[in-house]
Amino acid sequence: MKKTESEKVGGVIMQYLREMGLETPLNEHRLIQAWDKVLGPAVSRYTKEIRIYNQVLFVTVSSAALRNELMMRRTELVARLNAQAGAQVITQIVLK
User: Fold this and answer.
1) CA–CA separation, 36 vs 66, rounded Å?
2) pLDDT value at residue 2
3) Which of 28, 40, 42, 46 has its CA 20 to 30 A from that of 14?
């Protein structure tokens, strides 16, 4: 029996997702799920809606004070959320 080059299962799955056009939606879902993990339950309580469109994360926050604090930390949040998702998913955050 001849040995063939083996590939890691994770690499094969990622290649399949990429070919099927599912990698981006999966990464977007991971990033949205990471919101609660990165910002914690206190911020999550005031978060109404989270969606991604054209690499922009749109977040509706019910507290004006919290919205202002998050606006000051947008650059840091983009980096932390992308790191948690494991890919460059968003480039900016818009807070409403």
Assistant:
1) 15
2) 63
3) 40
